[in-house]
Design a protein that fits this description.
The chain is of the alpha+beta class and 281 residues long. The chain has helices spanning 19-32, 55-69, 77-80, 86-89, 120-131, 143-161, 193-199, 207-214, 217-220, 231-241, and strands spanning 7-15, 39-50, 72-74, 109-115, 168-175, 180-187, 244-249, 252-255, 263-265, 272-279. The protein contains 10 helices and 10 strands.
């Protein structure tokens, strides 16, 4: 039994993968990054829904606030049971005080996992088996062949340019009722802006420009280019097949949603998050 938390941080509303949800989760970092080390209860009482893949972002926020600022976070599992039991099935929360975790008997999760930046083989297996061999893609047999190599390029780019010894966070969730699989990949490195600005000798000097640069084919095909390897193909693939794609880095969220703004402000959290919503039909 851990020590009693000293403060409570309420989260509210409906957290569906997109700029609004990203902002709420990264606001936790903004709120606590300048405060003295504390023990904090994350209060989910007023959350009506949270996409389970967003556990990758929440886990990265908690990790950085603990590592760099000494904060300890708690979640009341009584509030999670039933309402958010997915947090147990996907491995974000353990069950009880033992090492046991609730088995995902619905087979919808892509398990919450932290990878070392040196764990190429483990990441390859996770993406190849847990993600692209998921039941959600049984009617899309070509998706693994089309995208696996590009995910590995993105991971290699994190290793080369993110400048981090911290873990890489990943989590996914399949929603069979709406035929969608949502997947989130997060690193806690330096983000896009600084390395791309340095690489372009200052020609790129805003987060918006850095994201556009990373998504531009003539830039992302360079083997030594930061932030972009694999991203242009992923952007084009998602556009062609109707999948959602978002990048959060350097205080901005870019989305390929043509019905909304392309760029949204968020708290400037270290590193980069890539979020995908696959339409699985």
């Amino acid at each position: 039994m851990g020590p009693k938390p000293h403060s409570k941080y309420p989260i509210s509303g409906r957290l569906v993968s997109g700029p609004s949800a990203f902002r709420k989760l990264y606001d936790i970092f903004e709120h606590f990054k300048q405060s003295e080390a504390n023990e904090i209860l994350l209060d989910f009482d007023e959350v009506s829904w949270m996409d389970a893949n967003l556990c990758a972002i929440l886990d990265s926020v908690i990790f950085v606030l603990n590592r760099d600022y000494g904060h300890k976070f708690y979640i009341d599992k009584k509030h999670i049971s039933g309402k958010f039991e997915i947090f147990q099935r996907n491995g974000f929360l353990s069950v009880g005080t033992s090492d046991e975790v609730l088995i995902d008997n619905r087979d919808t999760t892509v398990r919450m996992t932290r990878f070392s930046t040196e764990s190429d083989g483990e990441f390859y297996g996770y993406i190849g088996e847990s993600l692209f061999n998921h039941q959600a893609f049984e009617k899309m047999p070509d998706i693994k062949a089309n995208l696996l190599e590009h995910f590995l390029e993105i991971y290699a780019n994190i290793q080369t340019h993110a400048n981090t010894t911290g873990p890489v966070f990943a989590c996914g969730q399949y929603y069979p009722q709406v035929h969608q699989l949502k997947f989130t990949l997060v690193d806690i490195g330096v983000g896009f802006l600084d390395p791309i600005s340095e690489f372009t000798k200052g020609q790129v000097n805003t987060a918006n420009e850095a994201i556009v640069w990373a998504l531009t084919e003539k830039n992302t095909t360079k083997m030594d280019a930061p932030g972009g390897l694999g991203l242009t193909y992923l952007k084009n693939y998602c556009q062609k097949h109707g999948h959602g794609f978002q990048i959060v880095t350097s205080g901005k969220c870019w989305t390929n949603d043509t019905s909304a703004l392309n760029f949204w402000p968020v708290a400037n959290f270290p590193g980069t998050a890539i979020n995908l919503t696959f339409t699985c039909k």
